[in-house]
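Example 9 (inverse folding). The structure is encoded as follows.
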C-alpha cells in the first residue's frame, strides 16, 4: 500500500480512468493511453522562474511540464522512466528505486558568483549569463541554452581556456 504501490498499479495495470483534471486531460491528449498522465497528478507541482533551480535526490519521481530544464545527474545515477515517453518503462525497477517520502524541495537561487548550492559532492553548477572567461581546473561540461547560435554543449578538458561570449547557459564541474 501507499504511493509506490499506487504508482506501480497505475503503470502496470494501465486502468481506463479519466480524471476531470486539466493536467491529466492535457497529458492524456499528448500521450494517449499512457498511465503516466494519471501518475503526474500525484506529484507536487513546483513552478520555477528563469534562473531558479531544484535539487532532487535519487529516487524522486519528477517531470517537466514546459519550459527549458537542465537535468544534471551524478556519474552513478541511472534514469528510470515512469511514463510520458515512448521509451521503455520498467515498472519493477521504478518500484525498487522510488523514494515515496513526501518532500518539498527548496527552490535554489544562485549565489552572487553564479554557483548553485546543490546538496551533493558529485557535481557543481554555475549559471552563466554575461561575458566571462575562465580556465578549467578539472573537467567541465559547458552548456549554452540561448544566445550565439542556440543550444549547445561541449566538454572542456582540465586547463581549457573558456571564453564565454554571453547568452544564457551553465558550467558543470566535479
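The amino acid assigned to each position is listed next.
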Amino acid at each position: 500500500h501507499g504511493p509506490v504501490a499506487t504508482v506501480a498499479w497505475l503503470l502496470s495495470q494501465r486502468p481506463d480512468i479519466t480524471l476531470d483534471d486539466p493536467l491529466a486531460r492535457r497529458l492524456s491528449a499528448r500521450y494517449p493511453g499512457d498511465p503516466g498522465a494519471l501518475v503526474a497528478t500525484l506529484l507536487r507541482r513546483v513552478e520555477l522562474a528563469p534562473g531558479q533551480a531544484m535539487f532532487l535526490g535519487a529516487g524522486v519521481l519528477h517531470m517537466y511540464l514546459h519550459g527549458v530544464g537542465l537535468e544534471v545527474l551524478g556519474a552513478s545515477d541511472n534514469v528510470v522512466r515512469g511514463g510520458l515517453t515512448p521509451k521503455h518503462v520498467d515498472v519493477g525497477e521504478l518500484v525498487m528505486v522510488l523514494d515515496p517520502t513526501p518532500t518539498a524541495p527548496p527552490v535554489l537561487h544562485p549565489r552572487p558568483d553564479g554557483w548553485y548550492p546543490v546538496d551533493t559532492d558529485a557535481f557543481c553548477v554555475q549559471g552563466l549569463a554575461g561575458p566571462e572567461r575562465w580556465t578549467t581546473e578539472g573537467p567541465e561540461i559547458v552548456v549554452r541554452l540561448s544566445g550565439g547560435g542556440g543550444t549547445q554543449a561541449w566538454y572542456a578538458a582540465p586547463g581549457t581556456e573558456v571564453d564565454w561570449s554571453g547568452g544564457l547557459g551553465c558550467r558543470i564541474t566535479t
